[in-house]
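Explain the record.
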Amino acid sequence: MKQAAVLKIIFDNLRRLSGKNMLKLLGLCLIHPLYSILALWATIKTYSLSEKLFPLTHSTNGEGNAFRHALWNCLIMTYCCKISSPNKSLLWTKKITDLHEDLFLNNPLQRKMDLHNNQVGRDCFMKMLPTIHRQFFETSFFVDQLLELTKNINQLESLDQEFGFELIKIE
């Protein structure tokens, strides 16, 4: 998918936000404008890669969606670590991706799935951090590892279930 098409999807979704929610997003983005630009770039890259690798499930509750959420968090952290520390990047990534889940509401099971897969992405980045200097991280490092995780994806059936370093899906 071309980047212009992905940007259109992003801006179409942003237009659907209420004024109050738009102010929440704008408030967070104004605090860290460079992080915000990098997060937007990570979103574009993630959406494009997910569409390519999982054309049927990246926008559902399946493997592609789990992969997309985890990769999104990995890439936000990767780009933000180029200009800041891993700990600051970790905090920002959690803030912006949690806000996304707050602004674009899902049912409770979908929310649990998305928040968990976001955490897996952040954990994936942090696990790889000691082995590679953060300035040299490449998207392919995460894609390969996350594709492996999709091979053993687990099924989320209730809000009471707990999972570790594994991707989860609903369908």
In short: The longest helix spans residues 33-53.
